[in-house]
TrEMBL record:
Top-level taxon of origin: Eukaryota
Ligand binding (Mn(2+)): H58, H60, E65, H106
InterPro entries: Cupin_1, Germin, Germin_Mn-BS, RmlC-like_jellyroll, RmlC_Cupin_sf
Taxonomic source organism: Thalictrum thalictroides
Protein name: Germin-like protein
Classification via SMART domains: Cupin_1 (SM00835)
PANTHER family reported for this sequence: GERMIN-LIKE PROTEIN SUBFAMILY 3 MEMBER 3 (PTHR31238)
Gene Ontology annotations for the cellular component aspect, listed alphabetically: apoplast
GO MF annotation list: manganese ion binding
Subcellular locations according to the entry: Secreted, Extracellular space, Apoplast
């Protein structure tokens, strides 16, 4: 039986801890946190950025995203699909909105002098997230360094070094 707390979440007012290697923190509000979102096709996320922090290149396989800057200045962009692979990007300020189409690789970087905060609305209760570097260089089991070296046109030693960081 549904309960009020199935439709409730608190926490998006809290500043995320950005003291990590990326300088960002994503706080999701999706079906995991709010069971009442099941089948509703919507979710949110708060993203906090330290100065020069990034939300690294990633994709949402099940959702488009609309991002609103609440504080600060962000450089944002996405890459169109093959064969064009064209970067569509913009610098956003407080109150600006940008859309990332479903499944396309996208990112954000704080290019302002202070912290930045954005709110993302997604068109799925369970949008999923695939962070490109983590998926490619940190997969479990690892993708062979020979495959990655050829794909990224790097030497095997460099691939091994990158994989060791994940």
């Amino acid at each position: 039986m549904a309960q009020p707390n199935d439709f409730f979440f608190t926490g998006l007012h809290l500043t995320g801890n950005t003291s990590n290697s990326l300088g960002s923190k994503v706080t999701p509000a999706n079906v995991v946190q709010i069971p009442g979102l099941n089948t509703l096709g919507i979710s949110l996320a708060r993203i906090d950025y330290a100065p020069w922090g990034i939300n690294p290149p990633h994709t949402h396989p099940r959702a488009s995203e609309i991002l609103t800057v609440l504080e600060g200045t962000l450089f944002v962009g996405f890459v169109t699909s093959n064969p064009e692979n064209r970067l569509i990007s913009k610098v956003l300020n407080k109150g600006d909105v940008f859309v990332f189409p479903v499944g396309l690789v996208h990112f954000q970087q704080n290019v302002g002098h202070g912290n930045a905060v954005a709110m993302a609305a997604l068109s799925s209760q369970n949008p999923g997230v695939i962070t490109i570097a983590n998926a490619v260089f940190g997969s479990n089991l690892p993708i062979s360094s020979e495959v990655l070296a050829k794909a990224f046109q790097l030497d095997k030693y460099m691939v091994d070094r990158i994989q060791a960081q994940f």
